[in-house]
């Protein structure tokens, strides 16, 4: 299974090709549009999200509501494109230097300067257009199909915000995925606790007033997993490692942890490892889930619990010192628009990246050209695991 995305933030559209889903999976544009809507929202977003109303157009691989087994092709239009046709057009121009809005002032913390030096661009727009997290809309679209595939196999996924700029949601996470979804959807920052929500909004407001930005921590939970997705045999078959890579690949993510995560550093082994129990009805389970659903790079059958930390947004209204690459003169950046917190949106992206990696692992273990084959294979594996 693989997917590729193409398209610039202010270009005409994002384009996606996805390979590997079996035939017979029910997929509707409405399912994808609902997840795209979720990603666009959340407290702290900037004015761009007023312009965009993300809608997917299915242009291949799905017919009469079902996958055919052919590559799936999707398109998401950028409504902002109409304001950028001159600056972003593909046609050759005689004097590129004449283009208005050439970007020569790299933002600390963004991809601008490294990308310019690496690719030799004097207009850093050639870097920022593709490094923009606009691309995460495409990832949510493919992740929605992964979610639908997993759901047909009894695997459910939800996400939430745990922390924003030091304001933390300490409340107990409900076990039910539906409960997590219902509560977080009612929260403007996608957390579980009302008081925490107010504190997070305050932190975002204060940062905005100061021309600053804030980051945070998001969590994704997946339930209903078969035992033994992933493998211990190679570094690149360990599923926790693959999920960590996928989460780290989200723009501005700087760290990943599973279960108790970094807190394990200060705990004795007896308070970290999950004791094993057995019953005839359920087979082997763990009494706790402090390891977050993985041992040896394989799923234990307990919920996968993965968290990612997002750094504060790099584009700031409060100027940070940088150097103009054309004049080599120092300047203090001034900008037009930006998100000042995208942690709630990023929690939606994280859910979808985890869904994708789980879907890949399911496909690797169970194969199948038709959905009914996959369903049967997963059911047979569940039965074997319980009887083991
Ligand atoms: C949903 C989302 C929205 C983002 N919005 C912005 C933004 O408005 N302005 C900005 O400078 N960075 C934004 N970022 C972060 C940058 O895309 C990111 O910092 C940049 O691509 C550099 O990559 P790195 O931070 O992973 O090193 C956003 C990230 C996400 C996940
Ligand atoms: C467009 C999206 O996010 C963008 C991500 C982003 C960045 O630098 O990552 C910068 C901003 O873009 P603009 O400069 O056009 O305002 C965000 O709006 C989106 O999430 O769909």
Automatic annotation (TrEMBL):
It catalyses: 5-O-(1-carboxyvinyl)-3-phosphoshikimate = chorismate + phosphate. FMN binds at residues 130-132, 251-252, 296, 311-315, 337. InterPro entries: Chorismate_synth, Chorismate_synth_AroC_sf, Chorismate_synthase_CS. Reduced FMN (FMNH(2)). SUPFAM superfamilies: Chorismate synthase, AroC. Homotetramer. This is Chorismate synthase. It comes from Pullulanibacillus camelliae.
